[in-house]
Design the sequence.
């Protein structure tokens, strides 16, 4: 199950701000309330102790409402915390070392205009529930060089040290950024020691423009990188991919934006994400997940965004591409609680699946879309449109929908599953649940891209996938094959000792299940046909009583077959006990093993044998009824000129 309400625990009171977990002991958590009120929380005992840096006698630190707190990228035992000065601790907060002077402009906030003028001491809520002005609000350490630290202040300064605070360089003017603009975020590159990114938040100056800058010389010079960002879309946070240099993420007032070219161009990336302010983001490097926190809409996770690393300008020269497939991990997900009402909430987990990311440059246009474009162009040129012929309109109505086909094969080249989805341009993904196709009877037309439901699980091993496009009656392979592996989690106490034998047994069960369920459906269809036939006999002059008795005999045999499949309805209606039917025993066999990767039990193997033994005579009798008895009685009905009944082909007599 996903993250649930009761997975959360409180580490600190107040509003709650930046938190860090001790890299050497995840049970030690450094948690803040407003104004840098830092505690060290012990998850084992539930105890917490204050570890906020305290000023010497006669001095006061100025903390921001949301003070920065980071763990050193080079010393896992080191924390940095910031007020108007920067501090570090190497002993988990027992003591702190000041490594900077006051890094702000040191302005008196009471002498700054608010609403266009200097406010009096009696102004309503003067300085209440606000941060002290002149403090550090952004902080980052270079992942590539120890001691290279970047500090940003609420009064628009960026300060840089390359020697862990021994010397500082101050920068106070930035292209395209008004004076004294709040520095909302700093990000030192993990690919180039000299590169650093900065975001600015101008809302306190009634400036909502997005402001992101890039420096390639450790802050000496800066270049704006905002092309494609939304107007009035203030930028709050940034993240950089740990594998591909130049792949950036920005959290803005209107969602997440990405850049694949060092910020030269940005595009919105928010499929499934509401339009909301994204205030913070982190990358989970092992899983390649982007985790974001929004203002009022909760946490969101973009699972395995690694396909974005393959987006380059050269991609526009290709019709389609299948990106490398991450090895898929197969396991059985445990269930959550149920019946708890509104008191219980569990966030969804990503699907247990092999995920195929792909790119399609252009989706095929339908005949109707082509016609509409031609009409729109004519209207632009003030010309009359050409009204389509009825043949053209009918061709539009009958045109088959284009689709993408993913074909998955095993190591021997055998097709194990095909997946269809609508052909849409751009970057997308499709999930395969690592199961064979379903074996359930299909009795009517369904959704055009239905996969038939998942069947039994495939075995761990090597697989590959290809991508094809169906359009205008032709199927063309566009990309692939891409190879990938299915691996097991190996978290089972009693795993199957021979996965191939397990897969072979599951194949046997699936093959038997397909025939049993199909035969049961056929028996139901036969029951409906024979009832219609008896109605037709009653409506046909010249139909003999003997013919009706033949139909009645088929109807009774069919009833007995349905009892064998589903049990005695009369007994069930009266809640009487009866032996398991063929279908109920099959259901127990299939679903009893559905959520397990252990070997089948001896009981399951015996049940398979029982089903086979009970089913064979039922199958033979049903086959005879369908192919012989039913055909004979329908032939006689046709000779008598009886009204049509379902499944019987009417013949015209001269």
Sequence:
């Amino acid at each position: 199950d996903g993250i649930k309400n009761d997975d959360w625990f409180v580490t600190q009171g107040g509003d709650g701000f930046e938190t860090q977990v001790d890299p050497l002991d995840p049970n030690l958590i450094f948690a803040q309330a407003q104004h840098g009120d830092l505690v060290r929380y012990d998850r084992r005992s539930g105890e917490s102790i204050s570890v906020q840096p305290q000023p010497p006698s006669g001095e006061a630190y100025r903390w921001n409402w949301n003070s920065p707190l980071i763990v050193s990228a080079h010393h896992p035992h080191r924390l940095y915390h910031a007020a108007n000065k920067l501090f570090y601790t190497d002993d988990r907060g027992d003591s702190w070392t000041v490594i900077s002077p006051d890094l702000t402009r040191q302005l008196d906030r009471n002498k700054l205009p608010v609403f266009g003028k200097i406010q009096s001491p009696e102004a309503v809520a003067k300085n209440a529930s606000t941060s002290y002005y002149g403090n550090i609000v952004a902080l980052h350490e270079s992942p590539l060089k120890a001691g290279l630290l970047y500090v940003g202040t609420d009064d628009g300064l960026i300060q840089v040290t390359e020697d862990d605070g021994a010397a500082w360089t101050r920068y106070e003017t930035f292209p395209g950024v008004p004076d004294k603009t709040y520095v909302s975020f700093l990000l030192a590159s993990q690919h180039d020691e000299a590169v650093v990114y900065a975001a600015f938040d101008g809302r306190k100056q009634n400036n909502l423009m997005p402001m992101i800058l890039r420096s390639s010389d450790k802050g000496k010079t800066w270049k704006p990188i905002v092309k494609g960002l939304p107007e009035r879309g203030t930028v709050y946070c940034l993240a950089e991919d740990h594998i591909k240099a130049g792949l950036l993420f920005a959290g803005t007032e209107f969602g997440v934006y990405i850049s694949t070219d060092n910020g030269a161009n940005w595009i919105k990336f928010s499929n499934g994400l509401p339009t909301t302010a994204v205030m913070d983001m982190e990358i989970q490097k092992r899983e390649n997940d982007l985790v974001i926190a929004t203002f009022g809409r909760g946490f969101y996770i973009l699972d395995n965004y690694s396909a974005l690393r393959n987006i380059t300008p050269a991609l526009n020269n290709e019709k389609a591409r299948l990106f490398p497939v991450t090895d898929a991990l197969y396991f059985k997900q445990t269930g959550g609680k149920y019946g708890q009402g509104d008191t219980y909430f569990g966030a969804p987990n990503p699907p247990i699946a092999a995920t195929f990311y792909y790119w399609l440059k252009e989706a095929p246009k339908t005949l109707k879309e082509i016609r509409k474009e031609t009409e729109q162009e004519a209207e632009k040129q003030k010309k009359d449109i050409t009204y389509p012929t009825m043949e053209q309109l009918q061709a539009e109505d009958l045109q088959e929908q284009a689709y993408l086909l993913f074909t998955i094969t095993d190591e021997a080249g055998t097709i194990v599953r095909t997946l269809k989805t609508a052909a849409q341009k751009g970057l997308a993904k499709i999930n395969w649940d690592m199961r064979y196709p379903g074996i359930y009877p299909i009795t009517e037309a369904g959704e055009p891209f239905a996969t038939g439901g998942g069947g039994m699980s495939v075995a761990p091993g090597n697989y590959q996938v290809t991508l094809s496009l169906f359009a205008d009656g032709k199927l063309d392979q566009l990309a692939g094959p891409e190879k990938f592996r299915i691996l097991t989690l190996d978290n089972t106490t009693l795993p199957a000792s021979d996965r191939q034998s397990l897969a072979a047994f599951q194949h046997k069960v699936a093959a038997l299940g397909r025939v049993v369920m199909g035969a049961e459906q056929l028996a139901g269809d036969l029951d409906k046909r024979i009832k219609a036939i008896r109605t037709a006999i009653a409506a046909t002059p010249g139909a003999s009583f003997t013919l009706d008795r033949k139909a009645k005999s088929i109807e009774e045999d069919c009833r007995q077959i349905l009892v064998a499949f589903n049990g005695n309805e009369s007994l069930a209606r009266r809640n009487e006990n009866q032996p398991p039917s063929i279908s109920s025993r099959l259901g127990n066999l299939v679903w009893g093993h559905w959520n397990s990767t252990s070997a089948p039990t001896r009981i399951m193997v015996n049940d398979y044998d029982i089903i086979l033994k009970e089913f064979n005579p039922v199958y033979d009798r049903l086959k005879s009824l369908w192919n012989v008895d039913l055909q004979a009685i329908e032939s006689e009905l046709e000779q008598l000129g009886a009204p049509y009944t379902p499944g019987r082909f009417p013949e015209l007599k001269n």
Notes: The chain is about 20% helix and 25% strand. The first strand starts at residue 20 and ends at 21.
